[in-house]
Amino acid sequence: MVSNSGMNPGVGVDWDAASTTFDEEPDHGLRDPVVRAAWVDRLRDWLPERAGDVLDVGCGTGSLSLIASEWGHRVTGVDLSPRMIDLARAKLAGRDAVFLVGDAVAPPVGEQRFDVLISRHVLWTLPDPERVLRHWRGLLRPGGRLLLVEGVWGTLSPVGISAERMATLLRPLVPDAADLRVEPLSADAQLWGRDVDDERYAVVARF
User: Fold this and answer.
1) pLDDT tens digits, residue range 55-97?
2) Dihedral in degrees, nearest 10, Cα atoms 24, 189, 181, 148
3) Residue-wise over 121-135: b if at least 16 C-beta within 10 A, else e?
């Protein structure tokens, strides 16, 4: 749930209030067919072919959840904003999807475990990302994967988590170095609906 404007994104935003215009950002609502197709292509590579249980942490209005659901995955979405959750429930009405109001640091999923955990532009806003990653790792079944889309925004006072730091945080958690993949995303303007000059990337970690 991070704005892709040039302003400092994310922290301190009233997401209930922002929900009314959230999907107007091309990479949030995925209303532009070109932008949506770009995310579909990436997710096809990142998500397992076999349908499974997907946890979308900081799901916003559920745009990525919808794509996963369209491929047969059973989706649980979590977001701190009740209004975002309302919009996600409406967007995925009639699908095999559950949306819960809760904190990304400790998603309220009880003993349920997942095949994939997705988080886009959320981890950088949370205190102690290393601890959060360990907790998220514990929400995955053996053989599960963690999909993180993150970046660094701004030039004078940059905020975010660099790809290098993210890889450093994840390496101790990943059994084999070959199971940790970092994919640069900044050059793919179709993902964002415009050219960007900041650092954006995806990490896929397999456990």
Assistant:
1) 999 999 999 999 999 999 999 999 999 999 999 999 999 999 9
2) -10
3) bbbbbbeebeebbee
